[in-house]
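Page 42, continued from yesterday. The earlier attempt failed because a stray header line got pasted into the input along with the sequence. Redoing it now with the clean sequence only.
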Amino acid sequence: MPQLNPNPWFSIMLLSWITFSLILQPKISMFIPTNPPLNKTHTTTKTTPWTWPWT
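This time it went through. C-alpha cells are written below.
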C-alpha cells in the first residue's frame, strides 16, 4: 500500500516544521501588535431582562 510508505512525506513534513520553527517563528514573534489589549478599558453594559408576554 503506497499511502503507508512514509519515505518522501515524512522528510517533507520534517523539513517544513524545522523551517517554520527556526526561521519563520522568530520573525513572526518579533512583531509588536498595534493595539495591545492592556491599554483598553473594560466597559460594562447594563442589561435588562427580557419580559416574556406569556409569563
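Notes: Residues 10 and 51 are 60 Å apart (CA to CA).
Reminder to self: strip header lines before submitting.
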